[in-house]
Amino acid sequence: MNKIVKNAQEAVASIKNNSTIMLGGFGLCGIPENSIKALSESDISGLVCISNNAGVDDFGLGLLLKKHQIRKMISSYVGENAEFERQLLSGELEVDLIPQGTLAERIRAGGAGIPAFYVPAGYGTEVAEGKEIREFNGKMHLLEYGLTADFAIVKAKYGDAYGNLIYNETANNFNNMMAMAGKITIAEVEELVPVGELNPNHIHTPGIFVQKIFQGSDYEKRIEFITTRD
Fold first, then answer.
1. Per-residue pLDDT of the chain (230 residues; tens, 9 = 90+)
2. From 14, 22, 178, 212, which residue has the greatest number of CB atoms within 10 Å?
3. What distances in angstroms separate CA 19 from CA 38, 151, 157, 219, one per listed residue?
4. Which pTM does this prediction carry?
5. Phi and psi at residue 11, in whole multiples of 5°?
6. Is residue 118 within 8 Å of 144, Cβ to Cβ?
7. Which of helix, strand or coil describes residue 227?
8. C-alpha dist (Å) from residue 49 to 52, 86, 213
9. CATH class of 8-116+146-215
């Protein structure tokens, strides 16, 4: 039951070239900083990354893009990364852009074992190309498929040796649902506490979904835009 590994390097060591990985976070909030850095320091390549966004040029997934370790991005919003834009326009990077709500539901469905579902978002746009369309209650819907991954990498505030996780407020974002959708889920936490210390009523992700856990360090917790009053 003890799922603790020493550090980020040990946690991601089993990730191979061409793996599909989900990475929690929204913008730069709640991203698995240590794990991403460990991947960027490795020789891994050909990754398919499922993430709401692609970080910024010198932080988050931007580190992997800079080293051309990502073959394909499946994302919702990627507007803050100039290197992402350059690779997309040059044809170096495959990109599947998905409406944010649809992306979240596809991940949730994958984790829940739901193979497919219908949503109205995207009908009548390029998003609908090649997809099955059906009418429900007078409204047209697209068939979307659940998403899973070889690995899910998430970031939590608290965790224990069993893999139970508690996220910090809005850092719950994509982390919780991704933890359920990975065949192997790696959790990095700010504080690793003794088993039994976490209130069962406060746990967001039960340990059954987590295979590896470690306590991270040196979190920057960057803010994408800082606006101050004159």
1. 789 999 999 999 999 999 999 999 998 999 999 999 999 999 999 999 999 999 898 899 999 999 999 999 999 987 778 899 899 999 999 999 999 999 999 999 999 999 999 999 999 999 999 999 999 999 999 999 999 999 999 999 999 999 999 999 999 999 999 999 999 999 999 999 999 999 999 999 999 999 999 999 999 888 777 788 88
2. 178
3. 15, 8, 26, 26
4. 0.93
5. -65, -40
6. yes
7. coil
8. 10, 17, 20
9. alpha beta
Strand partners, 210: none
* Domains in the chain: boundaries: 8-116+146-215
17, 16, 28, 23: which is closest to 55 by C-alpha? Answer: 28
DSSP one-letter code for 126 = G
Tokens of 157: 């505030």
